[in-house]
Amino acid sequence: MARRMRDEAFRVEQEQGRYDPHVRPINEMVDVLRDQGGRGWMPHVAPWHGGVAARVLSILRDPGPKTQEGGGSGFLCVENDDPTAELQAQIFEEAGVGPRDVTPWNAYPWYINRSPNAAELQAGAKVLKELLGLMPKAGVVLLQGNEAQDVWRRLLKTHPEAIRDRALKVVSTYHPGRQALFVRDPEERARRAQHRIDSYQKVGAALRSTGGQL
């Protein structure tokens, strides 16, 4: 079942669990970062996901409209009521990756609903360093889209200590949004769609190869 956030009972359950132990450190960090430097609002991570215990960190570009409070869920979650979240939920499931295996995040974690600029991505890299420090079990980083790959390069350049002594497997692919397939060549569209599927499969294989320990 996808788009569970349309169900009021599920959404209320997420709201009630936003400070459960496995997501409390991340969501308390979000509370501090909200409106920091006038940047604005930032969604919490849904307790549906693994939080600090997750073995996979999944990074997209920026929070979408369905992460907004009021018009959306108020959370980063693959069960949000939008096509991008639905596709992620589907491909993760097909790859044998459960919601508790993953913590979703964004290259620029504040809500802007547009492509972040260089300065914003640099700010995102600083936050990403903090997030990784809260996720000691993370062994796989899934970079989805150009901005996610950009912020990771910035992290490596300006905060190399964030991954020092950590054996992280980094998997890069296209963003799961529809725009990633906005190309004329049907063969190229098919190649990109398959690349996303193959990348999720790599994430699943990495989890299985370690026997659940990363």
Automatic annotation (TrEMBL):
Signal peptide: none
Top-rank taxon, per record: Bacteria
InterPro entries assigned to the protein according to its UniProt record, in alphabetical order: Uracil-DNA_glycosylase-like (IPR005122), Uracil-DNA_glycosylase-like_sf (IPR036895)
A Pfam family recorded for this sequence: UDG
Domain Uracil-DNA glycosylase-like residue range list: 89-177
Name of the protein described by the UniProt record: Uracil-DNA glycosylase
Annotated source species: Streptomyces roseicoloratus
